[in-house]
Amino acid sequence: MTATTKKDEKAGAPAGAAAPQEGQQTTAVQKQTITPSERFTNMVMARFSGLAGAAIELSGYQKRLVQQYFISIDMALKAAEEKRLKKDEKKRDPLPVTWENVNLEQLALDVVACSKIGYDPAIANHISMVPYKNNTTKKYDISFQEGYRGRELKARKYGFEVPDNVFAELVYKNDHFKPLKKDARRDVESFEFSVSENPFDRGEIVGGFYYHEYYNEPRKNKLMFYNKADIEKRKPEYASAEFWGGKKTKWEDGKPAGSEHVDGWYVEMMWKTLFRMAYGVIPIDSEKIDENLVQMLEREKHFESLREQDPDEALIDKRNTQLQQGTGTKKLNTAAVPDGDEPTRKAIATDVQYEDIREQDGGNVQEQPADGSLFGAAKQPGF
Q: Distance between CA atoms of 8 and 180, rounded to whole angstroms?
């Protein structure tokens, strides 16, 4: 028996056994410390590669976004499942809202597309996730719904002739606002705007405007202004009183007991509507379109069909979505060709008519997977 063997036996290693390699020890430690969001990221990359037929490469930033998507989706699933269980058993959907019932193949494609576009769920009003049941597949699809800051991101990344500066303002009764539109004597559109002498008593909202500014080509500057009714008609079809103000049902002991008035966040909702309008009119440049944007536009149409698959639940579904995730109805405008010197360069307008009704801040969220999660510590997925 060699000296090396005796040393191994004293250390507790069986005779003839090879000493563990440094790489094997590192791998064992990694398996013990990997987080649920990291397991989710690995699943996304593996499934995407299998569906696409080629390996997917994600930057460190994109991987971080994928992990943030996991946290947000996990929270959305947990909230939806709690709501499902609170329903009367006769009206309750029998399919639990858990990871086991999510269409993971489609989710992998959507997650990769959103991460490459740059939507960050940790930034308030960038993007939110809502589960929808697909009655055809008997699975839950996850809708990635763009917030008003997400719309700004998309417009600046894919827009055609994006302005250098875009801003929106509400106008109150006591304010001074004078539009200076382009005419025979004025080459550049502009405006005069000042808050009333008493900034804390500006009166009621009477309208609003947004302005597109081009620093090097001021003749392209564009001013649009709207009265109060023009802005209000763009709010969601089933707008929540908690956010827009108005009457809401009063509940006592789980039963409706009349109605009550709530102030809501009317001013904030009106401003967000203007902000969406300001960025929604920026057309998409066909030369900038990539497979990630196409993927998300197609998914928007898909979720419209899911919302309409059950007419009896349509109103409830849209209402709950607005309350939970800050969305409304979406409609894509038809394609348009802008005026200019490049007739072969098309721009596709995608003004989506819906409003955020709740700010979401995912920056301080801890990883706590919902019960039954495929990515929790108790269960190790087979991929």
A: 89
Q: How far is CA 156 from CA 68, 171, 278, 285, in A?
A: 22, 26, 12, 10
Q: What is the pTM of this model?
A: 0.70
**Do the beta carbons of residue 283 and residue 349 sit within 8 Å?**
yes
Contacts 24+ apart (CB under 8 A), 158-161: 158/284, 158/285, 158/288, 158/289, 158/293, 159/282, 159/283, 159/284, 159/285, 159/288, 160/282, 160/283, 160/284, 160/285, 160/286, 160/288, 160/338, 160/345, 160/347, 161/220, 161/282, 161/285, 161/338
Share of the chain above pLDDT 90, in %: 51
CB 168 within 8 A of CB 278: yes
Q: How far apart are CA 148 and CA 160, in angstroms?
A: 18
* In the chain, domain spans: 33-158+286-383
Please check whether residue 165 is in contact with residue 141, taking contact to mean a CB–CB distance below 8 angstroms. no
Higher pLDDT, 348 or 154: 154
**Paired tokens of 116:** 């490459």
Q: 292 vs 57, 64, 114, 247, 295, CA distance in Å? A: 14, 18, 7, 41, 5
Q: Helix 104-117 crosses helix 291-307 at what angle (to 10 degrees)?
A: 130
Write the pLDDT tens digit of every residue in 222-258: 999 999 999 999 887 767 778 888 788 777 766 777 8
Contacts of 230 (CB under 8 A, 6+ apart): 207
